Known about the structure:
The complex is a heterodimer of chains A (347) and B (309). Chain A has 347 residues and is an all-alpha fold. Chain A is built from 14 helices and no strands. Chain A has one domain (21-340): ABC transporter involved in vitamin B12 uptake, BtuC (Orthogonal Bundle). Chain A has helices at residues 9-33, 38-50, 53-78, 86-103, 109-138, 142-162, 195-212, 214-224, 226-231, 236-263, 274-284, 289-312, 319-332, 334-340. The termini of chain A are close together. In chain B, helix 3 (44-62) packs antiparallel against helix 4. Chain B starts with a helix and ends in a 20-residue tail after the last helix. The A-B interface holds A 1-2, 30, 33-34, 82, 84, 134, 138, 140, 143-145, 147-149, 151-152, 155-156, 158-159, 162-163, 273, 276-277, 279-280, 283, 314, 316, 318-322, 324-326, 328-329, 332-336 and B 40, 42, 86, 90-93, 95-97, 99-104, 106-108, 110-111, 114-115, 231, 234, 237-238, 241, 273, 275-276, 278-279, 282-283, 285-286, 289-291, 307, 309.
Amino acid sequence: MQKRIKVTRWQEIATPLAAVVLALLVGSGFILFVGENPLTAYRILFVESFGSIRNLATTLQRATPLMFTGLAVAFGYRAGLFNIGAEGQLYIGAFAAAWVGFTFTGLPRLIHLPLAIVVGMLGGAFWGSIPGYLKAKLGIHEVINTIMLNFIALYLTDWLATGPFHGGSWVPETARVSATAALTRLYPPTRLSTGVFLALAAAFVAYLILWKTKQGYELRAVGLNPQAAEYGGINVAKNTIIAMAISGAFAGLAGTEQILGLHNRFIVRFSADLGFMGVAVALLGKNHPVGVIFAAILFGALQTGSAAMDRLTSVPRELITIIQALIIFFVAAEYLIRRILRMKEEA
Amino acid sequence: MGEVLGLLFNTAVFAAALRMATPLIFAALGGIFSERSGVVNIALEGMMLIGAFTAMFVSNQTGNPWLGVIGAMAAGVLIGLLHALFCIHYRANQVVIGTAINIFAGGLTVFLLRYFFGAAGTSPSVATIGDVTIPVINRIPWIGRVIGRQNPLVYLALLAVVLAHLVIYKTSWGLRLRAVGEHPKAADTVGVNVFRMRYVAVALSGALAGLGGTYLSIAHLSRFSEGMTAGRGFIALAAVIFGKWTPFGALGACLFFGYADALQMRLQDVGIPTQFMNMLPYVLTMVALAGFIGKSVGPKASGQPYIKG
Lengths: 347, 309
């Protein structure tokens, strides 16, 4: 029998926090292994990510794409879908935004920038709707198709940016996007851009759709119990496609933000697992938009602090990749954490 | 046109295809054991990567590449047990844990690479497993040039396919394995220990994926480099599906994907972008899943944690 677990608001926050603490504890084993003091390393990690406005700005800049990909995974999850394809949707969105950015030059900024953002978003939505359609119409589980589409997107954009849309330099990238399509930098010399506001707005929109609209009600109903939803007159197939498209739209925006706010051109394989990290962010944020924002900031902080830790101690910066993976392990194993925290399970 | 046809049947291309397929075959067999027991394994990529690193490291420390093979399999078993522990005992989502292992492997291998060798990117060159010539076979005209002289791991991969087939279909252990993956409750009722079967299968999966990684770092090349598996774990996963969860089916898929891989450099010269060849395994797998080439359906209980009672 499936046990029903009574969850209070405190417990809702306690499990992710416990997971982070456990991950840091296990991570300190790796720090000891290389002969450094965990407290020193973690202090540097913290100070370098939150210690000054400049550090905080970098933390937010690193957190921005993770907010989007975290939202993508969380949104899908609420509708009962596991979107592990944020990485691919991100690439398609990024390329689409870059294409608008370097093609339609001469447009006024007021039109060019929003156009690039919308097209980038639609690119991700399109790529996300493919596995949604295949699940709705043919019943194929979305996990395998989204994994396959990640690689297809990777190679497709690789070809586009080195073939038909190659920028002409020796590097595998497209031409630069016009200044009229670039997001504004907020706190130079850090690379934080107005993209962070876009991410916060996206989180708010995700919340509104899920909890304040009829569409969102249907999506969540499908997520909780598709059979019951179908019985209650909800079109499960249609909602599956819509959920994957919206999820993909968020991932597409992650790519869009990276191009228009950071790289200003499409660079082959620029992402470095931002989409997969979205899984970690969504899990840690309990698949809630507010949780996603905080989780993304934590991951952004780890990334920001790791460079200084690498420089000032002999701990390789990859420690934080290990810690991020450990966080996923522990959040995913809620069953374990609940046992550690001795939370009551009700029959 | 004649030039292209010549390419397609070139013995050098076939020999290269067999080499490219070898790491995929090991990992795909690993995927089959895991999935057959009811545990989805999208961590093949990470397991291969850790295998590749361990093989290089042990070979570097001992000077004996065969100890590297054993080390890589042991590391694979450990990662497999980690996967099993979280998925089976802690009932965590198998896809989530797979993702975590892949991220973990990417971080851990570079962490250790930089700690032990001070270098990011690539390790120093290490002792490798050299090619061997099979006496009689290498004299057979066309075939001899394809399989007459290859790496021992290539032959081992082909042997492993036959063994996996026999184990899965001709032994009682294989019968129990399949039962646990299709209908764990029924298997439990007749006295099969579902948890133990799954632990063993996922550990075996790790060992095989580790072997696949071994081939990359100490047979195909002589060093480990960051992220050197480059998606091969996922191609192996694709081969599992494409081959309908059977060893010989997966072998066919791996050989085909290896062939496409071996052709890509040569086809670039006649105007076909390498990226299109790279995409092929993934596109074909989606097509196979959609049922255009005979529907691929996996083990029924795959992905479901088993809760006793």
